[in-house]
Specification:
It is a single chain. The chain is built from 3 helices and 2 strands. It is an alpha+beta fold and 72 residues long. The chain has one domain: Ribbon-helix-helix fold, CATH 1.10.3990. It has a two-stranded antiparallel ribbon with strand order 1-2. Strand 1 and strand 2 form a beta hairpin. The two termini are 20 Å apart.
């Protein structure tokens, strides 16, 4: 398991923003997006649209956690 934090630039609702996440969360987002047949960017956009004032990186971590819990 890697523990590094990687910052990536993504396009959300027509504007660029950067997101910093631990590598394991990026891996999980890729897996979830693949299982849903969508791109990671589209998945991040969907999470972004549903967050309520929460920091995007935090919202993505909570989304991944919820997805993992749903699978268990």
């Amino acid at each position: 398991m890697t523990t590094g934090i990687t910052k990536r630039s993504v396009m959300i609702a027509g504007h660029r923003t950067s997101v910093s996440l631990e590598d394991s969360f990026w891996d999980a987002l890729r897996e979830i997006a693949g299982a849903r047949g969508q791109s990671v960017q589209a998945l991040i956009g969907a999470v972004d649209a549903g967050r309520e004032g929460q920091n995007l990186s935090s919202a993505l971590r909570v989304f991944v956690l919820a997805s993992v819990r749903d699978r268990a």
